[in-house]
Structures are given as structure tokens and as C-alpha cells.
Amino acid sequence: MSEIFGVLAAVLSSALGGTSIGATRYLVGSIDPLAIGSFRFGFGFLLLMPLTLLRGDRWPARADWAATVGLGMLFFALFPILFNASLIYTTAARGALALSTLPLLSLMIGAALGSEALTWRKSIGVVVATSGVAVALLTNLSAAPSGAWRGDLLMMAAALCMALYGIWSKPLIRRSSPIGFTTMSMAAGALCLILLSSFRGSFAPVADFAAPQWLAALYLGAFGAALTFYLWAFALERTTPTRVAISVTVNPITASLVGAWLLKEPLRWNLAAGIVAVFAGIWLATTAGRRVEAAGLSASSRP
């Protein structure tokens, strides 16, 4: 039951993440990626900090501080820089589909680190899902913004950061708590982004913000940072990084809907085909793992 709650939390987190792509795409015309990340995770930290203190959640132990800060820099500083910069060049839907390489990266990195085996079934799933992403990104290029491939590559680099965070943070979250770990790591990333934004003068356009821009920034902080990444940490505490990463395939659905509604971005057949192939590939790649796991548990229970 605990693992089911973890998967459901990951799905909700990814759904919120998809809407955050749309909100970020809306803001990139007003301020640069550093400032967007500063607002998103700065507001997120300000919301999580009092909640952590009121609940009395465990903070990471002193021995884990360096790793927690390092992962915070990776996930809450480098990740949003790549994520936000990618949406300067590509659409919300394409960005979400590029981020859907996350479960594939998690599977491959997990296999490389020896945390899970990459079977033939998983390999076929990787090929199918990657082909789905390729269909969505490489067809109908005339409908894509000029230089969209730059955004696609930046988003895939962001997915790599997310995959590493998911694998490396799991033991730290278990030794502390989802909110405590997320708050400390988010603080490290937000501080880095705020310092970089101040140095580059990235906050200057804020003086011209109207109500829609402030609402988008507040939405990113409350739902795109505080709630999204609390749910992500909650999920990582209860299930495997790969199963958490699978939920990111929900991202393109919500991002496409938000992009179509808020940004008037087109919904085309190749996006739908890419989403279907990604779902099919991830299903192929992960059901084998579950069956092997079940078989192993069954064998271990025999006298």
C-alpha cells in the first residue's frame, strides 16, 4: 500500500510539473531562466520552511549535509537553468516530451550503477519509448520554433540531472524525511540561483510585472516547486527511482493541454503518437522488472 501511495504521489507530481512547463513558457518572454528559477524555488522554500518547522520533520543529519547541498545544487539550480533555458527555444509540449526521456535515463543509469538489471525486455522498451520521443520531436518541424532542437537537447540534459537526483537522493530521504530533505536541498539551489540572478541583473524586468506575471511566478513557487517536489520526495521514499521516473510521462499530457489553452500551441498527431509510444515503451521496460522482482520474492519465500 505504501508503494501505491508513492506511485500516485509521483503521478500527481508529474501532472503538476506539466502545468509548470506551461507557466514557465509563459514567463520566459518576460524574464530570463535564472530569475524564473529564483522565483520558483525561492517561493517554494519560503512555503516549505514553516511547514517543516511546524510539523517537526527530521532534517538531514550533519553527515549528510554536503550531499544534500550538492544534490540541491544539481536539482534546484542546474536543473531549472537547463529546464527554463530549453523553453526559450521550444514549445511546452515538445519540452515535456523531451523531459520524458527521464525514465529511460533512470533505467540506463540504474543499470550502469548496478542497482537494477537492463534486460532484453527493458532494452526493447527503451528503444520503443525513445522512438516515440523522436517521432514527436522530429516530425512536422515546420510547426516548431526556429532552433527548437536546442531546446530539446537542453531539456534532455535537465532530465539527466533529474535522473541522477532521483537515484542519489533516495537513501538521504529515507534517513531524514521528504519535507526536511526537500526544504534543505531546495534552499541550497534557490540561494545559488538568487545570487547568480542578482549578479547578472536578471531581476530588473520584475519592475514591469503585471498581475499575470506575478500569478505565474506564485503558481510556480506554490505548485511547481513546494508541492511538486515534496510529492516527488514522498514518492522516492516509498518506491524505486525508476517507478517514480515513469510518472513523468504524464508531463506531456498536462503540458500539451496547458500549452494549447494558455499559449495557443498546436496539438498535432505526432505529439499524440509520441505520447502513446513513450507510454508503451516505459510499460515494456518496467513490467519485466516487476515480474522479476515478484519471482525473486517468491523464490526467497520457499523453504
TrEMBL record:
Keyword Transmembrane helix on entry: yes
InterPro entries in the cross-refs: AA-Vitamin_Transporters, EamA_dom, EmrE-like
Listed name of the protein: DMT family transporter
Keywords: Membrane, Transmembrane, Transmembrane helix
Database matches in Gene3D superfamilies: 1.10.3730.20
Record's bilayer topology term: Multi-pass membrane protein
Predominant cellular place of this UniProt entry's protein: membrane
Entry similarity comment: Belongs to the EamA transporter family.
GO cellular component, one term: membrane
Domain of life: Bacteria
Residues annotated as transmembrane: 33-53, 65-89, 95-113, 125-143, 149-167, 179-199, 211-232, 244-263, 269-288
Subcellular location: Membrane
Domain EamA: 5-137, 150-286
Native species: Bradyrhizobium guangzhouense
SUPFAM superfamilies the record matches: Multidrug resistance efflux transporter EmrE
